[in-house]
Amino acid sequence: MGIRQRLFQKENLERYLQKDSQFERTLSAIDLIALGIGAVIGTGIFILPGTVAATKAGPGIILSFVIAAIVCAVAAMCYAEFASVLPIAGSAYSYGNIVYGEMIGWIIGWALVLEYVLAVAAVAVGWAAYFNSFIAGFGLKLPKAITGSFDPAHGTYVNLVAILIVCLIAWIIDEGLKTSVRLNNIIVAVKLAIIVIFLLVGSFYVKPSNWTPFAPFGIHGIFQGAAVVFFAYLGFDAVSSSAAEVKNAKRNMPIGIIGTLIVCTVFYIMVSGVLTGMVSYKLLNVDDAVTFALQLVHQNFVAGIVSIGALAGMFTMMVTMIYSSSRLLYSIGRDGLLPSFLGQIDKHHAPKHAMLTVTVVISILGGFIPLGQLANLVNIGTLIAFTFVSFGILLLRRNPTLNKIKGFRVPFYPVLPVVSGLLCLFMMTQLSLETWVASLIWFVFGLIIYFSYGIRHSKMNQKLD
């Protein structure tokens, strides 16, 4: 078989459905929305509205979130159609294998590995910092040596709290999906309740004069703000990784994906409005904008509760991302592009080896490596996946077999999928040169793995030889 045929051979949906049948379908639409909210509403809602308002959009941050939501909405509808027609594990990676072919599928999967693993590692470091600040309020302090990445010159050797929180979440998920989803749903409810408390308390301190001027940096500033806050929505795509474990996936997957986006958009807009109404946007360029605003109006007790909300927000984000990354790694191992032990399902209907591998990698990154600007790589990994999924709808509809499957359909086809893909490409142009260089290195490394291992061990190509 020729190299071109190997690279672009398309996967068969029936084989995926047969392999993924080992999973237990237990998730409802409400579970999916809770997973999505858990991933999307993290530290972003407590930090991003303040810094973006102060430096780019002013009170116009409200419109920035609306614009970003529109961009995400069109991508979300493309994800919803794929998840409805192809109820399989692996999210955009598996979709890519079916409509584009194996090599493109690998590139999408490698981009998602970058997104999920780095996102969790970065948030684990943030969670550890918040936790250390939280216990400091009770007069407790961990030894400096175990509170930061490996940096002997500054007296830190390992971020122990970051490692422990990752291992704890992985253990909870591994104990059983029902238990971990139930816990996630409870914490998401607590987190949303804390945000509602902020909105109720903060609304009493809103001064309409703080909303003037509404767009101090002009329309350009609002669009710049949209490019930044766009990344506050990243994570809803992780919902599609759970498709193989969803009851009535054709109905529930679109509800889960689009429902997540609607709920998160409403909360982002309300928090931005109250925050910029409480305090002049000029004062909000701080790391803890919501807490800062409450302290400024002498609501220190509520500010403390919001700090707990930030910890809860980061916790649920890590739950969703660790869960999704283990299912992604399982999917790649299932296809033989990475060692096949990753694609095994244990007696508890869980990919134990994939979960263990993900946990080790994230723990090393979060515990020992200073992430810094690497966190920006999360954005480019996601946008690459968004782009392929958007344009992939055109190929999905042209496939006579797949087009017969009834499920959610993107409206205004083919205009909306094309617009979605172009908007994602535009967002990529807003990323820094350093991000592009680092991502290029990552993808070169990924192609080396594919051509040295993946293409020779591919289950699809072995079947055709």
TrEMBL record:
Keyword Plastid: no
Annotated transmembrane regions: 29-48, 60-82, 103-130, 156-173, 185-205, 217-236, 257-281, 301-324, 354-371, 377-396, 408-429, 435-453
Keywords: Membrane, Transmembrane, Transmembrane helix, Transport
Lineage: superkingdom: Bacteria
Bilayer disposition of the protein: Multi-pass membrane protein
Localization of this protein: Membrane
Pfam families, A to Z: AA_permease_2
Official protein name in the record: Amino acid permease
